[in-house]
Amino acid sequence: MTYHIARAAGRQWSESAAVLGLRHATLINAVGGASHLEVRLYELRAGTIIPAHRHPFEESWYVFSGQGQRTVAGLTYQVAAGDYGFSPVGVGHALAATDEDLSWLSVRAPKPPAFRGAAISLPAAGVAGEDLGRPSETDPRHRFAGHFEVTDLAPPAQLSMPGYHGPKIRNISVHMLVDRLLGAQHHTLFVAQIAPRAGHGQAAGEHYHPFEEIYYFLSGGLRGMLDGDEVEVAAGDLLWAGVDATHGFVNERDEPATWLEAQSPVPPDSEAFFFPDDWRALAP
Description:
Number of helices: 1
Number of domains: 2
Strand content: over 45%
């Protein structure tokens, strides 16, 4: 499979067998074609605790609603909507929903192992530590978490990020959340937004990558082509594009299209974006 769309209307939830009060909806994994990513939505009932544990993969998260307490490597954060963070490979972490039910998006990379006898979660001890309050990007003690507001996005412009800068992706704003600065080695997580009424030639031209990526739409929507198929995606939908899957989009709405985007493996510093039209133009 070269791409997959998990529609909000078709979401299926599963109750956790290990933690009463926890449920998840898998949006993309190996079943959908992914080789590097697993993405889930989680909901945790108020007063419920996920005990300390560790994974053989990285995990990043973005909180949609509720209140909770997340501890990573001995640092405790009081989390709510707009907070995000990261748990490195093998580092103990725990989570509790406090006064309200907690909901969040989880991105795991590399994809959790599936070989015979593989363990994807092992108990961890001694993760409790200093309570740092709400995540803050101005406090140097806050190593594994941060907070995002839509006002953090810069005005829309041509795309400029590691791996590509140029005119083929326009009227876009990008704000990095999880990347190498936070210690991630296997994936990135960021917020992106395309301006309203960004039509053909004014949004995202058709391109492909040497990595997988997902778009989870927070608001608005886009129309585009995925490996030659015309698609429309809107708030609550997740779109996964595999390695070399061509994709390009326009925003025909009167509101911005805003999404969470994750990429794995981490994009290279150059040759991260390929535009078929550019290469066709070189043909004799």
